[in-house]
């Protein structure tokens, strides 16, 4: 029998869907009424590739800065279930993937946590990657759940998200690892470690957005 919590989640999701249906639509970027995404906000979703290296040396290329319009649009896609926004965001991710994905490379995604998947009923990153034209190959799965990141220092956060993933075999292949937002890169580092342990030749990461430096220290709870 489903737990009370799962039932409660289902009721909340159903109510949210009903409200989304009845409430007038507003721009996900600026709140302008009667439009899902206005032309001004659409114009703000242009890839400005940003490259950085994680603490473990993994190269990460991000399409957008996670602030302003792009951050609001991605949040609405993820937290309000407005999946139609993937149509506007996917080409931005796709333009970076087009530069990065080599001929024999496998494209895969960082899996959502089980709780996030239950809450949303879909995987935003997989949706974005699929829409961008690269069907993701499911390689990674979580073998344990990290605890809440809130209140943890940088080193403790890294330890908390270490050893979370295992990968299916990918011997000798280059892998492009995709996630929605990179903050410290600790989750990407752990996913890349799992891919290399499974035989990946080279791993490079691509994210839709990167958290600007001044927000790194804010200790966001859900992204790493
Ligand atoms: Zn707008």
Largest sheet: 5 strands, mixed
Percentage of residues in DSSP E strands: 15-25%
Question: Mean pLDDT, nearest integer?
Answer: 88
CATH topology: Rossmann fold
Describe this structure in words.
The protein has one domain: Rossmann fold (3-Layer(aba) Sandwich). It has a 5-stranded mixed beta sheet with strand order 1-2-7-6-3, sandwiched between helices. It is an alpha/beta fold and 224 residues long. The model is unreliable at 217-223 (pLDDT under 50). The longest helix has 19 residues, at 4-22. It has 9 helices and 7 strands; from the N terminus they run H-H-E-E-H-H-E-H-H-E-H-E-E-H-E-H. Zinc ion binds at residues 27, 29-30, 32, 38, 40-41. This is Phosphoribosyltransferase domain-containing protein.
Which secondary structure elements does this structure contain, and how are they paired or packed?
Layout: H1 4-22, H2 39-43, E1 50-53, E2 59-65, H3 68-79, H4 86-100, E3 106-109, H5 114-120, H6 124-131, E4 140-142, H7 154-160, E5 165-167, E6 175-182, H8 186-197, E7 203-210, H9 213-216
Helix pairs in contact: 4-6
Bound molecules: zinc ion.
Zinc ion binds at residues 27, 29-30, 32, 38, 40-41.
InterPro entries: ComF/GntX_DNA_util-trans (IPR051910), PRTase-like (IPR029057), PRTase_dom (IPR000836)
Family: Belongs to the ComF/GntX family.
Organism: Microbacterium testaceum
Keywords:
224 residues; Rossmann fold; five-stranded mixed beta sheet; two-stranded antiparallel sheet; 7 strands; globular; disordered C terminus; binds zinc ion
């Amino acid at each position: 029998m489903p737990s009370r919590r799962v039932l409660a989640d289902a009721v909340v999701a159903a109510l949210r869907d009903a409200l989304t249906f009845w409430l007038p639509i507003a721009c996900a970027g600026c709140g302008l009424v009667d439009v899902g995404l206005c032309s001004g906000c659409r114009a703000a979703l242009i890839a400005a590739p940003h490259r950085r290296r994680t603490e473990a040396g993994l190269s990460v290329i991000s399409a957008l800065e996670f602030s302003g319009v792009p951050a609001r649009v991605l949040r609405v896609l993820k937290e309000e279930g407005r999946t139609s926004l993937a149509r506007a965001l996917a080409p931005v991710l796709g333009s970076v993937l087009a530069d990065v994905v080599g001929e024999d490379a496998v494209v895969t995604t960082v899996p959502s946590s089980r709780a996030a998947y239950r809450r949303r009923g879909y995987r935003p990153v997989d949706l974005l990657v699929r829409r961008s034209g690269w069907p993701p190959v499911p390689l990674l799965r979580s073998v344990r759940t990290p605890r809440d990141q809130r209140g943890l220092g940088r080193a403790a956060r890294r330890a908390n998200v270490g050893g979370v993933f295992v990968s299916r075999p990918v011997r000798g292949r280059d892998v492009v690892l995709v996630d929605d937002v990179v903050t410290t890169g600790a989750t990407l580092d752990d996913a890349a470690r799992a891919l290399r342990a499974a035989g990946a030749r080279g791993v490079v990461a691509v994210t839709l957005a990167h958290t600007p430096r001044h927000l790194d220290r804010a200790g966001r709870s859900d992204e790493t």
